[in-house]
Structures are given as C-alpha cells and as structure tokens.
C-alpha cells in the first residue's frame, strides 16, 4: 500500500489565462494606439480615416481604455509568471501529516503551507452547487469544524471525477466522506 499520495494543483498557468492575457493586450494596445494617433492627428489607414474622430472625447476615452486594458493584461501575465495558486496536497500515512501547499503573490505570504495531523481530520466533504456558476469542491473538514479547500480554482470538475477524487482521498487517509448521496 502506498504511504504518500500527492495531488498537484494547477495554478494560473492554464490555457484560459494565456488566452485572455494575449487577447486583452492586443485589444487594449489597439485602443491605446488609436487614441494616441487621434491626438497626434496621424492618419492610420486611408480607408478607415474619419475626420470626425477627434481626440476629445473619443480619442481620450480610447487612450484611457487602452491604458486600463494594458495594465489588466500586465497583471494577468504577472500572475502567470509567478504561477499564483499552484501547489500540491500531500497525504502522508507514514508521518500522519496532511500538507496543503500553495504559491501566492510575493511578500510575507508568498508561500502558504498548512499542515494537519490525520487524527485532526473528521471527514472529506464534497460541496456541489449547480446553477449559473456551479461549484464542485472538495474540503478537508477538521474536528474543530474548519473546512480547507483541496480543489483548484477555475472551471468545475465533472461530477464523476470529483466523486472519484474525494473517495480516493477519504479511503487513503481512512476518514468519512460526506456530501455525496
């Protein structure tokens, strides 16, 4: 029987973040350049030039939206670079310790490392909420009623996969499973 089970958690280095960071950067750069060109009164393209496109108010608004979008894109690229939210859940039967490890933003709390004794755990809880923004999460429930999330943030995992993961964890550390009927 295995003594250590380790589940890797994907952080912000997922396809959707790369996609949106790129799309936002391209779109906002276009907005910014159009705003600046309207200020400098430079003709961008002979087919699309419009003499009615003035810097005040259209060009100023385009420049503002462009700068805002560029800053948002930089923030998303920064979270991708730092891989915020990544980490692992480790269940060690030989030492009797459960470790929840995550990376955050730089600073005092860059590394989040929570350790619990297996004896402190009362159950593994599965929380499933359907609707417009569905939630499918697995929690480590301690005897003092704290609930520590074990699943990644992002798109919801399908029901059979979340059930399988929760059953594997509860069987591995030999605790009850709650929330599944």
Helical run tally: 3
The CATH architecture of the largest domain comes to: Roll
Rg from Cα: 24 Å
Strand count: 8
- The percent range for strand residues is 25-35%
Strand arrangement in the largest pleated sheet: 1-2-3-4
Q: Which stretches of 5+ consecutive residues score pLDDT under 50?
A: none
Compute the number of structural domains.
Answer: 2
Alpha carbon gap, first and last residue: 28 Å
Descriptive report:
By secondary structure, the protein is of the alpha+beta class. It folds into two domains: 15-82, no CATH class; 85-178, PH-domain like, CATH 2.30.29. The protein is built from three helices and eight strands. A four-stranded antiparallel beta sheet has the order 1-2-3-4, with helices on one face. Strand 3 (97-103) and strand 4 form a beta hairpin.
Write the layout of secondary structure elements.
Layout: E1 4-9, H1 15-40, H2 55-82, E2 87-92, E3 97-103, E4 111-117, E5 121-129, E6 135-142, E7 147-149, H3 159-173, E8 176-178
Parallel strand pairs: 5-8
Antiparallel strand pairs: 1-2, 2-3, 3-4, 5-6, 6-7
Helix pairs in contact: 1-2
Question: Brief description of this entry?
Answer:
By secondary structure, the chain is an alpha+beta fold. The chain has three helices and eight strands, in the order βααββββββαβ. It has a four-stranded antiparallel sheet, with helices on one face. A four-stranded mixed sheet has the order 7-6-5-8, with helices on one face.
